[in-house]
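Reviewer 2 asked us to include a model.

Predict the structure of this chain.
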Amino acid sequence: MTFAKEIVVLDALIRKEPAAPVEVQAVQVGPAVFVTDPAEYFCRYGLEIKAASGFPYTFPVSLANGCVGYVPTEDAFGTHGGGYETRLTSYSNLDITAGTRCATPGSRWPANSSQGAVIEPPRRPPFTGKPWTYGNVPPERN
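Predicted model (structure tokens):
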């Protein structure tokens, strides 16, 4: 019943606005880059963005600048896929290739830019004192 209602709502939404604008950005802060999208990507897209980035610190950021719903991988729509994320609803209704089309520009940009220096924090001296014993008590038995 829930998914039947969602298909009716989705049909009305698509008649009103058949295309969804999706803004993908990359924001660099020194050696870190934040690749944003308005979707709930499947994990594999985030891992691909991190692998393609030449930055030492890459952070995929979901649900930034909007919300276009779940974006499953293309193989999630195959015979071994499924789940509620791949069901057409008013929340999750993009084209099957949307994830690849959104993740690809986000993963390409950082590799072409210059990186800031990675700053190493000063090392703390080794601990030479005694460990804190508060709470270090044997179990109570009746």
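The radius of gyration is 23 Å. Residues 2-16 form the longest helix (15 residues). We have added this to the supplementary material.
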